Amino acid sequence: MTEISDIDTVKKEITSFSLDSVDALEAFRLKYLSRKGIISDMLAGIGKADPTERARLGKELNSLKKLATSRFQEAKAELSSQSTYKKSATDDPTLPPVPPQIGSTHPLSQTLEEIKSIFYRLGFTIADGPELEDDFHNFTALNFPPEHPARDMQDTFFIRKDEQNPSRNLVLRTHTSPVQIRLLKEQKPPVRAIMPGRVYRNESITAKSYCLFHQVEGLYVDNNVSLADLKHTLITFAGHLFGKGLKYRIRPSFFPFTEPSLEMDIWWETGNRPGQWMEILGAGMVHPNVLKAVDIDPERYTGFAFGMGVERITMSRYEIDDIRLLYDNDLRFLNQFP
Ligand code: DAH
Predict the structure, then answer these.
(1) What pLDDT is recorded for position 323?
(2) Which one is the CATH code of 107-334: 3.40.225.10, 3.40.50.300, 3.30.930.10, 3.30.70.890?
(3) Given the CA of residue 308, which atom of ligand 1 is nearest to it?
(4) Whose C-alpha in 30, 38, 81, 181 is 20 to 30 A from the C-alpha of 203?
């Protein structure tokens, strides 16, 4: 049976109950506010009390419940405002703070930054052009004959066909060489620039090839630019990027937009793998037809150009054996490049 004196006792308990931890708060809730708690019990006991007392008991119990509820709410709010601090891993405020997670530069960007800084020191500026190119800039102005296999569906992502005027076909650029054309249309010689950017090829995706990758194009057009200048520039560049003991070779090659054309290989030995020659770039003297396409007199000016693949260089520097790793954004991979 519930009596007024019991209510008073419980009221005192509630008022003095120490609510200084999450555990104490839970004990309080169970003891007073739960369905099996003291206050529920007492409310249930009203039925057995003297009928003249019932109304008063009910009123007193309600205010007791209000008191318990408001103490509970206040203590809960107080504790949760401190909780980030109290609940941290060890509850030890003297520990140094956990450092924030900081991202790192993507290995491709690291290589690109290094390439840019080497050419910056050699006096090259930086230019860029659109990734969505027209046939004229990507092929025709670069002296690709109309039936050249590089225009084939297998390599090029064709975006729009213009039957009336094929020069206006739109493609995803297959190399950065079209930026040479855009730059030479804008700026008369002397021109000395590198042109980094993304390129696209319609190839099947494997460990060695991806549908997009990065190139850095280079161009130097002025009076009396010679093959010796080109060789010197390439050797200086490769020496800076790959280190002093560099072993390289320069081989004749073919590109429609250069004559003569060449390729540069470096001798690559890492870890326990046997050494091998690895091609790092194509280059050559700018073809007279290319200069004519941008209204530059090839009798008066000569130039050299080169183009290199950033993925290939990055993969050899860091011994990455699958190009797709560079595009998966897997943190287990990226975290290895602080
Ligand atoms: N555009 C060529 C390619 O994608 C690379 C290249 C070769 C660029 C020779 C040049 C160059 O500027 O002179 O394979």
Answers:
(1) 95
(2) 3.30.930.10
(3) 5
(4) 181
Residue with CA at minimum distance from ligand 1 atom 2:
307
- What's residue 70's pLDDT? 94
Best residue among 137, 213, 257 to mutate for probing ligand 1's pocket (most ligand atoms within 8 Å of CB) is 257
Instruction: Report the separation in Å between the CA atom of 152 and the middle of ligand 1, taken as the mean of its atom positions.
Output: 17
> pTM surpassing 0.85?
no
| HEC per residue, the chain | CCCHHHHHHHHHHHHHCCCCCHHHHHHHHHHHHCCCCHHHHHHHHHHHCCCCCHHHHHHHHHHHHHHHHHHHHHHHHHHHHHHHHHCCCCCCCCCCCCCCCCCCCCHHHHHHHHHHHHHHHCCCEECCCCCEEEHHHHCHHHCCCCCCHHHCCCCCCEEECCCCCHHHCEEECCCCCHHHHHHHHHCCCCEEEEEEEEEECCCCCCCCCCCEEEEEEEEEEECCCCHHHHHHHHHHHHHHHHCCCCCEEEEEEEECCEEEEEEEEEEECCCCCCCEEEEEEEEEEECHHHHHHCCCCCCCCEEEEEEEEHHHHHHHHHCCCCHHHHCCCCHHHHCCCC
Q: Is 71 touching ligand 1 by the criterion CB < 6 Å?
A: no
Query: For position 153, what pLDDT does the model report?
Result: 67
Strands 191-200 and 125-126: parallel
Cα–Cα distance between 264 and 230 in angstroms, integer? 11
Please tell me the distance between residue 299's alpha carbon and the centre of ligand 1 in angstroms: 23
Q: Which residues of the chain have pLDDT under 70?
A: 1, 83-91, 153-154
The residue whose CB lies within 8 Å of the most ligand 1 atoms, and thus the one to mutate among 139, 148, 177, 250, is 177
Residue written as token pair 């490049």: 337
Q: What is the pLDDT of residue 151?
A: 78
Phi, psi of 230 (to 5 degrees): -60, -50
pLDDT in the model for residue 161: 87
